[in-house]
Every structure is written in C-alpha cells, then in structure tokens.
Amino acid sequence: MTPASLVDGAPADTVGIDSRGLAYGDGVFRTLRLQDGGVLHADEQWRKLAADAQRLDLEVPPLDVWLADTAMLNHGQATGVAKWLLVRRSEGRGYRPTTRAAQRIVQVSSLPPRVASAALTIAALRLAAQPALAGIKHLNRLEQVLAARELRPGTDELLMCDHDGFLVGGLRSNLFWVHDGRLLTPFVDRCGIAGTMRARVLRIAAGLGVAQAEVREGGAALMAADEIFVTNALVGIWPAHRVETRGLQAPGPLTQRLARELGPPFLI
Amino acid sequence: MTPASLVDGAPADTVGIDSRGLAYGDGVFRTLRLQDGGVLHADEQWRKLAADAQRLDLEVPPLDVWLADTAMLNHGQATGVAKWLLVRRSEGRGYRPTTRAAQRIVQVSSLPPRVASAALTIAALRLAAQPALAGIKHLNRLEQVLAARELRPGTDELLMCDHDGFLVGGLRSNLFWVHDGRLLTPFVDRCGIAGTMRARVLRIAAGLGVAQAEVREGGAALMAADEIFVTNALVGIWPAHRVETRGLQAPGPLTQRLARELGPPFLI
C-alpha cells in the first residue's frame, strides 16, 4: 500500500514530540496541486519555499528531492494535493534556533471539491501586522484557525483585514478585484501570504498589458469593484459571485481573460 | 525506565503528522516548576491553562489528570521542569476547528541552571499586536524564535517591545520595574503572555500595600528605573543587574521584599 506521508523520505506518519514545529511552529509549508501525475508549477513553488525558508534561516532540500518524495506518494492519482513542510530540527530546548537543518515532510491527499464561484464574507477577526513574518507561509496559523470559526454555511471564503481595516486576502487565498479596468490586490508586506498564484496572476496581467496595483483599501473598495476573484495553488482563479450581500458577475470579463491565459487545469 | 513524555496518559514520544499543533500551532501550553517531587503552584497553573484553552475553545482535562501524568514521569527528581501541552484533535483538514477535544501531552526534563541575576537587552524585533491571542501561552511562537536569534553571550534575557515601541515583557518572562516606590509592569492586552508568576507578584505586592500599575512605556522607562526584575514559573523573581549598558543594584530592596514574600524555592 502506498503510504500517505514521508518524513525525510521514509514512510512515517508521526513527528517527535520535541518537534520545533509543534512547540513553536518553527517551519514553513507549501500546498501544491497535483495534476496529470505531476506537481503543478513545481519550480515556482520550490522557489517560494526556499525564499520563505531563508527568511527563517532554514536549509531547504533541492526540488528534485521534494518531487521524488511526492512521486513516491502519488501512485496513479490524476489530481490531488501535496503538502510540503520544512520544520527546523530540534537540538536542545529553548526558542533560540541552533541549526539551519530541517526535517522534510511530504503528504499527499485528494483534491477537495469546490463550487464554480465563491461567496465571500469579510471576517471580524483582524490580522496582526508583523513585517518580519509577512508574506511567509509559516506554521503559525492560529489567526486563521480563529478566523475560520466565522465560516458559516453559504460562505465559501473569508476575507481578512488588518488592524487598520485594510484588506489583506482570503483565509486560504489571495484577493484580487477589478476597478475601472485596473487589477488591484492588497499589499502583503505587513501581514498575509504572498502566494505563488498571486505572483503568477500579476505576471499574466502584466503580460496582457492590464494596469495593476498593490493597494491598501478597506472592504468598501469591494462594494465598488467590477469583478472580484481569489487565487491559490489549488483553485487557480476563483471568481466571486457575491461579497457580503452584494452580487457580482462571476466570472467577469477580465477574470475570464486572466483564467484563459492561466490555462488548464484552471480554465473557468 | 521512566519515559520522558506521555501522550493522553500513555508513554509516547511522537504525535501524528496530521497534528493541528504542527500544522497550525492550534494549542496552548504551560511550563511548570517541579519542586520537592510536586508541581509548584499547580492550581494556578491549571486555571491559567483552562483560561487559555477557553480562549481557543479547547476542552481541558481536570488538574488531577495532569498531576497524575506528571507524577508518572517524575520519579524521585527533587526539582525539574514539566511542560503541559493541550493540542486540538485533528478531524479532517482545513483551518476550521470542528472539535473542542484536545490531545494532552506531558513532558518532564531537568531544571536549567541560571545565574543569580540577569543582564537584559532590548530586542530589535517587535511583537505584533493581536488582542485575540494576547496573554495566551499558545503554540504560535515564531516571533520568539526570530527574536531569540538576537541573544548574544552576556545577555541572559531579551526584552521585547510592540510595534509602537512599548515594552511588553521578556522573551521567556514577564517584566517588572520599580520607579519612585511604585511597581510597574507592561500591559499584556495587545501582545505578550500574562504569566502566572506575573499575577502572583502583583497579588503579593498588593498584599504588601505596594503601589502598582500596568503601563505602556518604552525602553527609556528602564533607564530611570530604581530596580528591574523579570519573572516566570521556573525562576520566580529574577533580578536584573544590567539593562543595555546601565548597571543596577540586584536585587534591589523592593525586589528582595517581594522575593521574601514569594518564599522558597525563589528566595534571593
């Protein structure tokens, strides 16, 4: 039977109780889409993993090691989800990191179902500003856990603001909207995650000559938006048909154009 | 051989790779001093664990269960350190918590040595303000890991400020200082941990009729302080003989008076 997870390349479904991942969340991770038996946008995902690891001063194994692990777990599934975790090794106790060496954990699971377009709600919980950790997909995710308690039936994704009331992104996604032909997305320099799909969509928009900007705007900006969508590595571009009580065309024309450029498996 | 850790009361030194502690830091913990074979201030520690658990909506096992676990691990050690962790059980995937049930982890180790008084340095890294998590000893401790990289030989404890430059506390302790006969300590309502020893010292000071206040003050306040000390459950009251380049009497007279009231094993 194929195992569901590997730790440092060996079948395992546990980590040590002294893991700095458990004690402190001292690690980073990636959620990746498996497609046609391979890892979608693997290069980009690895580069982001490496960049995040560098922010925490963690050694990152080369891409081919991650891909070999993932392939070992992914026998014959056409689609799926891989999770790559990189957790600092434990040496003695205390907060101070004494090594850059990290444990490599790979898990594979099935792709969750999703509806064609999303209803968005703005969460009451606000994200703390911490530039030292902003943009990084690290293992300190209690804010997301707390915010997720606000998920109600009928909401597909929660939007998060910072303490100044500026939009940051979705609970599990980055946020985009279109206003007067411009593609807008929140800054993620004080909190939030700079997702690989966010970067890809910005590149695609630039390639199409679409005006774009990172902005600090509150939820009111979405009430005037012509189109709204969220992005991540699993869903690609996910158009919103509703934000709070406001209905929207989903997908809007620019959203469709970007999705067409993004290509399969994300055509909408 | 006595095991060093128990998971849900059974000898174990691993947790599942799907642990929400590893994935999100979805849990709380306590660090406790073992003294004369027992847990020091066990009632108070449990009440704080329960209060923190409630903030995250986690079920907490009764004190006697924690004490029984700890006793099973602590054969004949006069002193030591116990760590109690409470981690939400995993059910399915995603941030949203679907259960209040939690895994109970108990570890016992030896008491680390410490010098009689501490040299304090103010860390450059500043703590993010998140009222929803402030005061709780939860498993999201990446800020502490990042700050701990600033520890240099000659510094015994780092002091942390928030993004507004207000003192919050020590990396592993709460902070107190004396100014004109008043005992001052930072608010911990926006970030930081409200330690059990902090609460105990404030109660002791009140009992002695010492004027006290929670304050928002920057590091400059320490340059005018008559006495400074930090507290936690392991060290009790730890007088500072230096903050940055400024020397201090350690312990000062009020620090000594408080330590006398706190009693053994924390007499200084």
TrEMBL record, chains A, B:
The lineage of its organism: Bacteria, Pseudomonadati, Pseudomonadota, Gammaproteobacteria, Nevskiales. Homodimer. Its EC number is 4.1.3.38. Its cofactor is pyridoxal 5'-phosphate. This is Aminodeoxychorismate lyase. It is an enzyme of class 4 (lyase). Gene3D superfamilies: 3.30.470.10, D-amino Acid Aminotransferase, subunit A, domain 2. Keywords: Folate biosynthesis, Lyase, Pyridoxal phosphate. GO terms for molecular function: 4-amino-4-deoxychorismate lyase activity; pyridoxal phosphate binding.
